[in-house]
C-alpha cells in the first residue's frame, strides 16, 4: 500500500494519508518505519506522534519513546493527555522516575488531573513501577475519582516490590470502599498471597473467583491461582486446580512442574511433564529448567539426559545460558561431572552461575581440589564471584583443609564488604576455619561479624564439639548466652552428641536437664536419642531405659535402635529383648532391629563362653 501511495504521489499531497500510514505501521509494530515517516514529513497534529510514542511504550522501549517525544516538541507540538499517559508508561518500563516526576509537574501545571482518572492511574502505575510506593500512595489518594483500574495500579506496585502485606491491606480497603475487584485485581492479590504464603487468604480469593465464574476462559487468572498454591506448598490443591481449568497451556503446566520441583517432589514433576506433553503442548525453556531441577532433586540422570536430547533437538543451546546452567546443575547433582563440564564448555555465554553450579557439584562429590581449580578458571574469565560462589569455595577449603586459600577468599569477601549484606557468608567462614582446625581465627571471625546470630555461634560450637574440645564447647555455650542469644535445638544436639561420644555423662545430664526446665527449647526426639546413647555408651542401661520411659512418645524406631545398640555392646539380652519387642510393635519388619538383636545374642554368647 505504501509503495502504491508513493508511486501515485498521494503521500506528498495529503498529510491525512501520512498520518494513517504512521498509525498502521505503529499498530503493526513497525515503529522504525513509522518514526521515519514522522521525520520525513511535517505532521501538524499529535495523533501520529502519539501512535509512535504509544507503540514504543507498549513494547517496553521507553528510551525510544522519549526520543520521539523530544522530536515532537522540536516541531512545536504540545503533548496531550494521551502523550503523557504513554510517556508515564515509558517511565515505568525503564524506571525513569526523574522523567516521571517532570511529567507529573507538567500535568499539575496544566490541571489535567481534575477530570482524567486514566491519567491519574497512569501516574500511580508509574510511581509503583519505579518503586516510589509512598508517592504512588499519595497520588492515589489525591485523585478526584478512583476506579478498579486505579486500585489495581496501586496493588500491583506493592506486589512488584515484594510488599505483599501492603497489597493485601489495599485489597481489603478497596472492597471496603465498595469497589468490585476484577480478574486483574485477583491475579495481583494471588501473587501477594503466594509471596506471603497466605494460604487461607488465597483460598478465600479462590472461592470468590469460582463464585463469579471468572476462571472460564481466563488462563492468566488460572495460572495465578496455580502459582499461589505452589508458592504456599499446597501442591495437592494446585493439582486439583489445574485439572479444573477449562484450558491449559505450557505456562500453567510449567508453574505446577516448578512447584513440585521446588518442593523436592521430582517424580510428581516428571509425571506432570509427561501429562503436559500428552496434551500436545510443547515445553519451553522455563519448562525444561523446572524438569531439569526435578531430575537433579531425585538424581534421575537417565531422564535428565533425555531432556538434554530434547533441548538439543530444539536447538535451544548453546545460546540460552539459563537453560545451560540448569543442565550443568542437573549433571553436577547427579554426579556426572564430566558431562556438566562439557555443557559448560559448549555454552556461548558462561556466567558466574554456570561456574558456581559446577563448583558445587565437585564439592558434593567430595572433590574439593577440583572445585578450587574450577574457581580459578572462573576468576581467569574475569567474572565476579557471587555470595553463593564464595560460600561454595569456603566449603571446599574446609573439606580439603586448605586454610591458605580460605584466608585469600576471606580477604576478598572483606574487600568487597560482603559480610555486611550476607550473614551466611560469615557462617561459612567460621565453618571453614573450624574444619581446618584454626579455632582462634574461627573465634575471631565470630567476634568481627557485623551481625552475630545463633547460627554463627552454633557453627563455632559444632566445630569444637567435632574435635571433642569439651571445655571450649561449654565456654562457647556460656558466651553465646552472654551475648543475649538463646540456645536452640541444634545447640543442644551438638553438646549432647559430644557428651555421648566423649563419655561426659554428668555434663550430658546437666544440659539435658537445662532443656527439660526450659520454657523456650524443649527436648525433641533427637535429644532423647542422644541421652539414650550417652547412657548406653557408659553402660548404664537402666538410666537409658528411664530416659525412654520419660518420653512423651515411644513410637519412633530410632529410640529403640539406640537402646538395642547399647545392649549389643554390653551383651544385655534381657533389656535387649524387651527393646526388640517394642521396636517390632512399631514395625514388624524392622530389619535394623533384627540385626541389632542378632548382635546382642552374639555378644551374650561370647560373654557366656558359648561359641
TrEMBL record:
The keyword Repeat applies. Keywords: Repeat. PPR repeats lie at residues 45-79, 147-181, 249-283, 284-318, 351-385, 453-487. Coiled coil: none annotated. SUPFAM superfamilies: TPR-like (SSF48452). One of its GO terms (biological process) is RNA modification. Gene3D superfamilies: Tetratricopeptide repeat domain (1.25.40.10). PANTHER family: OS07G0578800 PROTEIN-RELATED, OS08G0340900 PROTEIN. This is Pentatricopeptide repeat-containing protein.
Amino acid at each position: 500500500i505504501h509503495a502504491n501511495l508513493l508511486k501515485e504521489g498521494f503521500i506528498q499531497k495529503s498529510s491525512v494519508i501520512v498520518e494513517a500510514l504512521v498509525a498502521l505501521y505503529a499498530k503493526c509494530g513497525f515503529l522504525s518505519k513509522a518514526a521515519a515517516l514522522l521525520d520525513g514529513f511535517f505532521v501538524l497534529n499529535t495523533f501520529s506522534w502519539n501512535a509512535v510514542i504509544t507503540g514504543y511504550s507498549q513494547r517496553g522501549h521507553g528510551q525510544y519513546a522519549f526520543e520521539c517525544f523530544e522530536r515532537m516538541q522540536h516541531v512545536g507540538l504540545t503533548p496531550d493527555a494521551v502523550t503523557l499517559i504513554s510517556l508515564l508508561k515509558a517511565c515505568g518500563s525503564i524506571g525513569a522516575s526523574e522523567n516521571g516526576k517532570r511529567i507529573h509537574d507538567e500535568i499539575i501545571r496544566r490541571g489535567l488531573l481534575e477530570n482524567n482518572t486514566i491519567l491519574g492511574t497512569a501516574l500511580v502505575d508509574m510511581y509503583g513501577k519505579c518503586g516510589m510506593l509512598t508517592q504512588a500512595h499519595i497520588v492515589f489518594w489525591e485523585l478526584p475519582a478512583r476506579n478498579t483500574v486505579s486500585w489495581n495500579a496501586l496493588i500491583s506496585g506493592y506486589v512488584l516490590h515484594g510488599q505483599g502485606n501492603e497489597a493485601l491491606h489495599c485489597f481489603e480497603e478497596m472492597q471496603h470502599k465498595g469497589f468490585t475487584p476484577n480478574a486483574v485485581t485477583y491475579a495481583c492479590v494471588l501473587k501477594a498471597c503466594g509471596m506471603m504464603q497466605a494460604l487461607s487468604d488465597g483460598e478465600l480469593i479462590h472461592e470468590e473467583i469460582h463464585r463469579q465464574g471468572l476462571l472460564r476462559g481466563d488462563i492468566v487468572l488460572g495460572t495465578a491461582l496455580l502459582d499461589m498454591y505452589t508458592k504456599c506448598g499446597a501442591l495437592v490443591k494446585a493439582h486439583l486446580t489445574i485439572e479444573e481449568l477449562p484450558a491449559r497451556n505450557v505456562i500453567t503446566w510449567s508453574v505446577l512442574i516448578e512447584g513440585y520441583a521446588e518442593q523436592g517432589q521430582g517424580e510428581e514433576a516428571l509425571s506432570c511433564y509427561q501429562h503436559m506433553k500428552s496434551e500436545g503442548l510443547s515445553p519451553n525453556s522455563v519448562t525444561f529448567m523446572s524438569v531439569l531441577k526435578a531430575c537433579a532433586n531425585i538424581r534421575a540422570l537417565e531422564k535428565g539426559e533425555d531432556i538434554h536430547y530434547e533441548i538439543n533437538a530444539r536447538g535451544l543451546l548453546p545460546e540460552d545460558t539459563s537453560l545451560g546452567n540448569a543442565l550443568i546443575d542437573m549433571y553436577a547433582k547427579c554426579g556426572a561431572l564430566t558431562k556438566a563440564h562439557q555443557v559448560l564448555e559448549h555454552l556461548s555465554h558462561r556466567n558466574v552461575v554456570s561456574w558456581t553450579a559446577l563448583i558445587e557439584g565437585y564439592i558434593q562429590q567430595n572433590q574439593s581440589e577440583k572445585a578450587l581449580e574450577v574457581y580459578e578458571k572462573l576468576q581467569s574469565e574475569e567474572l565476579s564471584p557471587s555470595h553463593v560462589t564464595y560460600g561454595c569455595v569456603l566449603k571446599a577449603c574446609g573439606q580439603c583443609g586448605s586454610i591458605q586459600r580460605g584466608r585469600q577468599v576471606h580477604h576478598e569477601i572483606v574487600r568487597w564488604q560482603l559480610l555486611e549484606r550476607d550473614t551466611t557468608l560469615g557462617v561459612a567462614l567460621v565453618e571453614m576455619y573450624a574444619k581446618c582446625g584454626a579455632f582462634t581465627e574461627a573465634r575471631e571471625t565470630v567476634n568481627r561479624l557485623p551481625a552475630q546470630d545463633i547460627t554463627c555461634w552454633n557453627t563455632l560450637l559444632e566445630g569444637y564439639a567435632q574435635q571433642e574440645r569439651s571445655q571450649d564447647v561449654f565456654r562457647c555455650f556460656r558466651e553465646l548466652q552472654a551475648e543475649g542469644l538463646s540456645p536452640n535445638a541444634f545447640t543442644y544436639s551438638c553438646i549432647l552428641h559430644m557428651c555421648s561420644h566423649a563419655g561426659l555423662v554428668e555434663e550430658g545430664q546437666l544440659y539435658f536437664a537445662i532443656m527439660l526446665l526450659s520454657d523456650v527449647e524443649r527436648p525433641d526426639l533427637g535429644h532423647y536419642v542422644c541421652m539414650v546413647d550417652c547412657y548406653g555408651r557408659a553402660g548404664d542401661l537402666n538410666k537409658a531405659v528411664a530416659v525412654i520411659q520419660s518420653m512423651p512418645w515411644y513410637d519412633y524406631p530410632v529410640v529403640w535402635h539406640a537402646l538395642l545398640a547399647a545392649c549389643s555392646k554390653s551383651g544385655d539380652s534381657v533389656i535387649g529383648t524387651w527393646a526388640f519387642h517394642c521396636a517390632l510393635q512399631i514395625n514388624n519388619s524392622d530389619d535394623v532391629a533384627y540385626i541389632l538383636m542378632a548382635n546382642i545374642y552374639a555378644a551374650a554368647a561370647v560373654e557366656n563362653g558359648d561359641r
